[in-house]
Amino acid sequence: xxxxxxxxxxxxxxxxxxxxxxxxxxxxxxxxxxxxxxxxxxxxxxxxxxxxxxxxxxxxxxxxxxxxxxxxxxxxxxxxxxxxxxxxxxxxxxxxxxxxxxxxxxxxxxxxxxxxxxxxxxxxxxxxxxxxxxxxxxxxxx
Length: 142
Known about the structure:
Helix content is 23%, strand content 40%. It is α+β, with helices and mostly antiparallel strands. It has one domain: Nucleoside Triphosphate Pyrophosphohydrolase, CATH 3.90.79. Strands 1, 2, 3, 4, 5, 6 and 7 form a seven-stranded mixed beta sheet that branches.
């Protein structure tokens, strides 16, 4: 049994007290229809920051300014053959951009407030933990 390791990088894009989340396309083999922070896999030889910039252009047609990483978690998928590490960064959209989602990646996006997390994520979801932590850190920075 071949085992692999993947690194993903995702962004907590904040705007007016809300965070950007996206719903994975129904055609995705892994977690179709699930809401997530935007981002994706880090390709071989690429930095996490390079991957984030590339993924946001590919998936949402936007450019971002990346700030600092604030959270990381791991999970195992594919019947225990793939170990994934996700690193989450704060970021913001460059001025004057409109999000245009790639339907192969996402079916919709939303800006949600901290009080709406439970509406889009299961309570024990690692992604929900990351979103909650992002809001907590930002509240302390005010």
